[in-house]
Amino acid sequence: xxxxxxxxxxxxxxxxxxxxxxxxxxxxxxxNAIDTVETRLVxxxxxxxxxxxxxxxxxxxxxxxxxxxxxxxxxxxxxASLPAWLAPMRPGLHETENDDEAYxxxxxxxxxxRHVLVLDQDDFERRxxxxxxxxxxxxxxxxxxxxxxxxxxxxxxxxxVVRLSGQVQHREQQLPLAPPLATEYAEDExxxxxxxxxxxxxxxxxxxxxEQLFTSDVSHELRTPLMVIASSCELLEAQALxxxxxxxxxxxxxxxxxxxxxVETFLGLARAPQERGTxxxxxxxxxxxxxxxxxxxxxxxxxxxxLDLVSEGVDxxxxxxxxxxxVLTNLVRNAIHYTDAGFxxxxxxxxxxxxxxxxxxxxEAERALVFRPFARGGSTRGDGIGIGxxxxxxxxxxxGWKITLSAREGCGCEFRVELRTS
Length: 422
Prior knowledge:
Blueprint: H1 7-58, E1 69-75, E2 92-98, E3 101-110, E4 113-120, H2 122-169, H3 189-238, H4 243-270, E5 282-283, H5 285-302, E6 305-311, E7 319-320, H6 321-337, E8 342-349, E9 352-357, H7 364-367, H8 388-399, E10 402-407, E11 413-418
Parallel strand pairs: 6-8
Antiparallel strand pairs: 1-4, 2-3, 3-4, 5-7, 8-9, 9-11, 10-11
């Protein structure tokens, strides 16, 4: 996986790459041009020197040779009189080596004689090495200069972007009284981006405030009728009721207690992150799973389904009872609701659980949408409005739990919840 790179590092990398390419191409051109020119100059100088030597020799004089020069004369075809490393050479200018020494050799045939002029390349090689060092140093200096210039420009150019990024990521910027961002920037691209952030953050703040107010108001208003129902159930239970009536009263009492827990759950979800300090009663995974099994067993039996509880490991964690109960309730209810025949199974393990069923399953194209509010499968049934799984996802996100959906071999699906993700 590639490590993320900052915008500044990408700007510096672009400057360095551009400098390396330009300097490298320029260095190659310079080296080739100088090599060509120097080779031409050496050829012209050796030809003039050989002309002078031959003219002097024809006049009966043999001039003194300069340092690094050697001269040989032999009849054409009598190469044995030449040094062995020079004998095979044809007329023209050559670059060769002998005993690890480099030489320029000029061979010319004239009047049946072969004239060979040899020039030691030590000075030439020394100048060539200095040229390569100078060009290499120039390339390195260009790259370093491009890196420094790119770094300086990157700091100057992207400093408003970095400051805007920090302000947007700051949690206080989401508060209703947070000052606008656009007033701190010039009316350029960054200023327009800040104005767009202001508009988006304003819309988000308004939406979050509406959601929190709605949830809080509904939950608050439900408390009074729930208290009336609970007190009425207590009065009924204190009377001598026949078994059928007592069973109905108990059922109403349990439903009332569940609604009270749901009210607390919704209030907890509606609170802002910094206000979520409300302590919820803790419970174990096994206790909630057993409770849900007993609760949904009658409906599963009525539908002809086998509702099983399987333990693959012991989980000793303690979790918020209302939230864990809401997650399990919605998953088990959905599984029973969408399964025509077969089974619904709750599998407990250390650190989480799964709810499996043998129903029709959920097509792969729809799995990414099931956790969205008001999303329902293609085989809709009943009067559900598609918020159960959305509520489950919100609770899991709030608690740091992880929920995934996968298809089972054969048919059906599996909702897997990890209660400890670290």
